[in-house]
Amino acid sequence: MKNTILTIAGAVAILALAQTTQATPSLGNITGAIGFAGNADLNTGTAATATTVVSWNGAFTPNPVVQSVSGVVATIVPAQTQIVFAAPWNFTTSSTITPFWYVLGTPSINFQLLNTSFVRGTLNGNAYTVISGTGLLSATGYTSTDWSFSVTFQDPSTDPTQSEFTFSASQNSVPDGGTTVMLLGAALSGMALLKRKFMA
User: Fold this and answer.
1) Average confidence score pLDDT of the chain
2) Do 77 and 54 form a contact (C-beta atoms < 8 A)?
3) How far is CA 121 from the centre of its chain?
4) Angle between helices 179-199 and 2-23 (to 10 degrees)
């Protein structure tokens, strides 16, 4: 009798968990692509040796802006929105930064940078550095979504000694890693175990 009560309690707990999960409304994953543009002050006069972004700003605004955007993210962060980036940022060290950027005036829309790597090179005699990474894009009402990130700094062709560099950055949503399928599998496994206990 005691085993039957425990089994029924377990079944009720699983059903309650399923109902709680369904009761929390979500607008889904934040999919699409977004591009940023602006200027950055680096800690040296060339991208060939720079290690740190000292500060960020826009070409005509105090902060960098969204230059292009598509998909679901376009409904959350429209073009020309100002973005506040974390600074100083030592991009040679891969570390979690929360948040790495957020929408000016709306910190609840933000990107958490989880890891990075970088490469340096030269194009037409000008040095450049490309930093790539992954992280989570979050916005109220949506599921936090895996995104890839990339930013490029290139030496100015007019004055290679100045510390301010134009930069471009892009992000793309990463396809669902199967979390939904994993949760469904776990729920079905739990129900199968309960069925065995009822049959015994």
Assistant:
1) 78
2) no
3) 26
4) 160
> Cβ-count burial of 152 within 10 angstroms (0-12 exposed, 13-18 middle, 19+ buried)?
middle
Query: How would you write 36-84 as a 3-class SS string?
Result: EEEEEEECCCCCCCCCEEEEEECCCCCCCEEEEEECCHHHHCCCCCEEE
The structure tokens listed for 180 are 């939904």
Residue 8 confidence (pLDDT) above 60: no
Q: What pTM was estimated for this model as a whole? A: 0.71
Residue at token pair 């679901």: 72
Find out whether 111 and 99 touch, Cβ atoms under 8 Å: yes
Over residues 85-107, the mean pLDDT reads: 95
Q: Where are the beta strands (DSSP E) in the chain?
A: 33-42, 52-57, 65-70, 83-85, 89-90, 97-103, 106-123, 126-138, 145-154, 164-173
Domain-by-domain residue ranges, the chain? 2-24+180-199, 33-175
User: Span 178-193, mean pLDDT?
Assistant: 38
What does the pLDDT look like over 37-89, one tens digit per residue?
998 999 998 899 999 999 999 989 999 999 999 999 999 999 999 999 999 99
In angstroms, rounded to a whole number, what is the distance separating the alpha carbons of residues 115 and 97?
Answer: 9
Nearest to 147 by CA among 44, 70, 33: 33
Q: What is the dihedral of CA 8, 11, 16, 19, to 10 degrees?
A: -140
The number of beta carbons lying within 10 Å of the beta carbon of residue 143 is: 16
| pLDDT attached to residue 17 | 35
